[in-house]
Write a structure and sequence with these properties.
Blueprint (H helix, E strand, L loop, with lengths): L1 E4 L2 E4 L5 H12 L4 E5 L5 H8 L3 E6 L2 H10 L7 E3 L12 E6 L8 H14 E13 L9 E4 L2 E3 L9 E5 L1 H7 L5 E6 L4 E7 L3
Parallel strand pairs: 3-4, 3-6, 4-5, 6-7, 7-10
Antiparallel strand pairs: 1-2, 7-12, 8-9, 9-10, 11-12
Length: about 200
């Protein structure tokens, strides 16, 4: 299934290239338990489960989670409906967290809360991989502005959805720079952030 968002197209029938690369790194780092934060309909969750990880998923979309539970009955108890800025997991529970195309769908203040939650639920030396939208991405800044670099899309598949746009300086403000391993832009022009939490 291919969805078109502005000038970008996403094939939701397979995992993104960056997630495949990160999964290889996770294997090398002996990562076992992963949270797919904002898992949606589960393309990355399914992929990570298939290649042997112990994967949990959370999303605010009840219908998406119910569909996933039917498809993945063996891990249905690990799939929950929930809010990103108040995660229902214990401290130091996960070896890794992935948050692909998800945590920027809110205000800057709420993004800080979400990142705090990611840090909280990760074990010491736990890894995280997050993607964000760059300030170069013009296509979404056509909606209602609600704060600096934050807009509610007025058209397209994400109509009514908040998008917050980031530059490199703001990444250093949002994340503890001591926890950042690699920050780069992928082929689609999104920020990719790989980090390790040191507690």
């Amino acid at each position: 299934m291919i969805n078109k968002f502005g000038a970008k197209s996403y094939d939701y029938s397979k995992p993104e290239e960056e997630i495949v690369k990160i999964a290889k790194l996770f294997k090398k780092e002996n990562i076992k338990t992963i949270l797919d934060l904002g898992c949606g309909e589960g393309r990355h969750l399914k992929y990570l489960t298939e290649i042997g990880f112990n994967v949990y998923g959370i999303d605010i979309d009840k219908n998406a989670i119910e569909k996933l539970r039917r498809q993945l009955s063996k891990i249905s108890n690990k799939l929950i409906v929930g809010n990103m800025n108040n995660l229902p997991y214990q401290n130091n529970f996960f070896d890794a967290v992935i948050a692909n195309q998800v945590i920027y769908h809110t205000t800057k203040e709420d993004m800080k809360k979400i990142i705090f939650e990611i840090y909280r639920i990760l074990k010491n030396k736990g890894l995280f991989f997050v993607t964000l939208q760059t300030k170069k991405n013009q296509e979404w800044r056509k909606g209602k502005k609600i704060e600096e670099w934050t807009y509610i899309a007025s058209a397209g598949p994400d109509k009514g959805v908040i998008h917050h746009f980031i530059d490199r300086k703001e990444i250093d403000e949002l994340f503890d720079i001591n926890n950042l391993i690699k920050v780069y832009e992928n082929k689609q022009g999104d920020w990719c952030i790989l980090g390790k939490v040191i507690k």
